[in-house]
Task: inverse folding
């Protein structure tokens, strides 16, 4: 203890590069966005007018914003739950594999290394209404696939592409979590005549809860923010705004429409929303987690 | 020993002098553009030829992604005082650029201040009109301009027994009906860029306003009109055709083209600059290029269509020397030889009459059937205030809003009137917002 107190500056010194990066690339832009949210500005930054809360009232008074919010909720829940459920299933299966386990695991982790835009393009190629291989199969089965016109199909496409992309990340954590569960517990339960189903739900699943909770937070953040590239490369928010999530709307208004004030106000709102969501998750869900 | 030392110093000194000479004499002019692939190579070639033609200036082209990315990065660079001298901006960004007073140097001022003899009358008014003030002063230099035309699969036409390509939408309806009913093709026609071709150009060609205030040329208080003109009937027509297979919606940008290449659709409405693409992809069948149809119920003689594409804007914050170089480069760029070469290579429209005449002289249009259709469609008549172009703020978003509603109309979510009303309402919000930020 005494030695630590003698080096009061050292920890700060060691932390400083990281803190500087966070300050420059996170706090400074976030601070700028908050300021910008109270102004109306021309794209070139030649002049700006203070408008107080007008950007916020305008955003909160527009039907499109609530529509994007609804889209975001549907999209995020589907992606977070879908990516976690599938990853858990695959992790449980891969955990049992003995022969060639390494190969399976590598293949399952692979999609994580694919850039979001590339992943989006891959899916677009497969499901292109005119040229896609998968859409041709669907056509043969009597399903008329056209995500350029059908909003529901477009939503399904971005959800699938986003799940595929995130599944690997979840898989790694679930697999590690599964391997940390003492075999003796499962064996004892098996001797007590508990079937695989029961063993999973009464032993494995509760013991995985710290991992699951961590992944829930990470997946929510992923679905809210990091799916931008996938959406941009597949549907660009269309058709008819059916896949326009909040973060995509921030981009559209800011970088295509150059409405920096409104875009900044929306990103402040989004920041508050995700902050609140994370707080709720920690406040209520974390109590159920058994460490 | 001493002599050698001396000599060495002399050579070094000379080399240094030579270096500083070349560094001082050639002024660099940065040109940011959005032309990828083959067109990008052509842009580099144009710059290289200009650089070789004189030794005072060096134009340095650099590719910055698609149109909206190029515009965004130029704006960001301007805010950081790193703006390029020349930037290529798409036509829908025109209002944003021209209202950025203090950020841009209008081309007519640039040319007047330089010692170039610049004659605005040499340009094709149908092309430059989009980029001039309401009193005819050129704000930016047109670079790549195109206009929509119809590409027709002649084999399908023959199979269905349709001899002539109809000039009107009414005639087209019958012809497409025959094509679809005879089973010669699964779909009659499709279109790229629906808002640009089926609304912006439809309005211009029929001399009806797209927006008030002379389509925005008259002032920032322009508001859309497309929900109360013949444009509504036209979208209704397409919606009806979508039901019986005479029309198939194919996406907001160029995604519709493959359905023409594969022979699924008999006709494709697309940019005249798609000609090269159509030519290389339509290998299995004969095709022809036809003018955009008009509705005989709305107008007797159709107006010109309007352009799409991009123009070159000059940004503030450079030395007089740089601007002199930009003026010389623009003069070079608008010379008949360079224009004719660019136009013939890319399928974009020539911007001067001289370039068009040169092409005729060279026999280019006879050797390449279809390549003159767009020019004739543009220059056949004098543009009116409804067909000069659009000058609307937030136009990229307005177009996206319109496309969004068109998608909803074509997939049956909303009725035609309802969808266009919503597009107009939201677009007018954007116009008000632009007026507020720039007024």
Result:
């Amino acid at each position: 203890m005494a030695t630590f107190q003698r080096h009061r500056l050292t920890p700060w010194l060691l932390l400083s590069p990281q803190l500087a990066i966070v300050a420059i690339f996170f706090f400074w832009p976030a601070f700028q966005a908050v300021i910008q949210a109270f102004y109306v500005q021309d794209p070139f930054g030649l002049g700006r007018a203070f408008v107080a809360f007008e950007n916020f009232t305008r955003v909160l008074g527009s039907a499109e914003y609530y529509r994007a919010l609804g889209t975001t909720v549907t999209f995020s829940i589907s992606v977070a739950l879908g990516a976690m459920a599938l990853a858990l299933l695959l992790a449980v299966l891969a955990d049992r594999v003995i022969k060639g386990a390494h190969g399976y695991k590598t293949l399952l982790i692979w999609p994580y290394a694919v850039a979001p835009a590339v992943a989006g393009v891959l899916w677009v190629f497969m499901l292109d209404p005119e040229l896609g291989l998968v859409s041709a199969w669907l056509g043969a089965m009597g399903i008329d696939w056209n995500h350029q016109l059908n909003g529901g199909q477009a939503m399904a496409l971005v959800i699938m592409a986003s799940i595929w992309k995130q599944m690997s990340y979840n898989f790694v954590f679930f697999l590690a979590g599964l391997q940390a569960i003492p075999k003796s517990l499962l064996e004892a339960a098996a001797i007590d005549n508990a079937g695989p189903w029961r063993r999973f739900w009464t032993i494995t699943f509760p013991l995985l809860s710290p991992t699951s909770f961590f992944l829930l937070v990470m997946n929510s953040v992923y679905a809210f923010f990091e799916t931008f590239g996938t959406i941009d490369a597949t549907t660009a928010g269309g058709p008819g705004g059916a896949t326009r999530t909040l973060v995509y709307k921030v981009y559209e208004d800011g970088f295509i429409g150059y409405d920096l004030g409104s875009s900044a106000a929306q990103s402040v709102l989004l920041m508050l929303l995700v902050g609140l969501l994370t707080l709720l998750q920690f406040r209520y869900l974390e109590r159920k987690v058994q460490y | 020993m001493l002599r050698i030392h001396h000599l060495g110093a002399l050579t070094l000194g000379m080399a240094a002098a030579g270096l500083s000479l070349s560094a001082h004499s050639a002024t660099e002019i940065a040109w940011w553009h959005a032309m990828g692939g083959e067109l990008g190579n052509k842009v580099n070639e144009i710059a290289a030829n200009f650089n070789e033609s004189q030794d005072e200036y060096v134009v340095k082209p650099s590719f910055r992604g698609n149109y909206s990315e190029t515009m965004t990065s130029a704006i960001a660079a301007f805010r950081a005082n790193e703006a390029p001298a020349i930037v290529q901006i798409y036509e829908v960004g025109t209002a944003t650029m021209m209202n950025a007073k203090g950020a841009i140097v209008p081309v007519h001022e640039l040319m007047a201040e330089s010692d170039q003899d610049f004659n605005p009358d040499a340009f094709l008014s149908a092309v430059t009109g989009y980029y001039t003030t309401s009193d005819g002063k050129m704000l930016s230099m047109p670079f790549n301009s195109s206009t929509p035309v119809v590409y027709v699969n002649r084999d399908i036409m023959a199979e269905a027994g349709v001899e002539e390509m109809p000039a009107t939408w009414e005639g087209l309806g019958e012809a497409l009906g025959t094509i679809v009913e005879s089973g010669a093709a699964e779909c009659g026609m499709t279109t790229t860029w629906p808002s640009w071709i089926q609304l912006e150009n439809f309005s211009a060609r029929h001399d009806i306003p797209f927006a008030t205030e002379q389509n925005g040329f008259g002032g920032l208080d322009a508001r859309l009109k497309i929900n109360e003109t013949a444009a509504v009937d036209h979208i209704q027509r397409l919606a009806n055709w979508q039901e019986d297979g005479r029309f198939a919606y194919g996406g907001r940008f160029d995604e519709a083209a493959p359905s023409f290449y594969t022979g699924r659709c008999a006709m494709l409405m697309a940019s005249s600059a798609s000609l090269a693409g159509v030519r290389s992809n339509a290998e299995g069948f004969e095709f022809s290029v036809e003018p955009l149809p008009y509705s005989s119920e709305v107008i007797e003689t159709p107006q010109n269509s309007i352009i799409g594409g991009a123009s070159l804007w000059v940004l503030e914050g450079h030395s007089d020397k740089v601007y002199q170089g930009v003026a010389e480069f623009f003069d070079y760029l608008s010379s008949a030889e360079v224009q004719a070469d660019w136009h013939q290579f890319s399928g974009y429209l020539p911007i001067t009459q001289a370039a068009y005449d040169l092409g005729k002289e060279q026999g280019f249009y006879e050797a390449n059937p279809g390549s003159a259709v767009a020019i004739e469609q543009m220059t056949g008549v004098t543009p009116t205030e409804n067909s000069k172009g659009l000058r609307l703020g937030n136009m990229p978003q307005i177009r996206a809003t319109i496309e969004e509603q068109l998608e909803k109309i074509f997939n049956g979510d909303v009725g035609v009137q309802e969808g266009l009303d919503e597009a107009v309402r939201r677009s007018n919000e954007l116009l008000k917002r632009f007026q507020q930020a720039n007024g």
About this structure: The first strand of chain B starts at residue 27 and ends at 33.
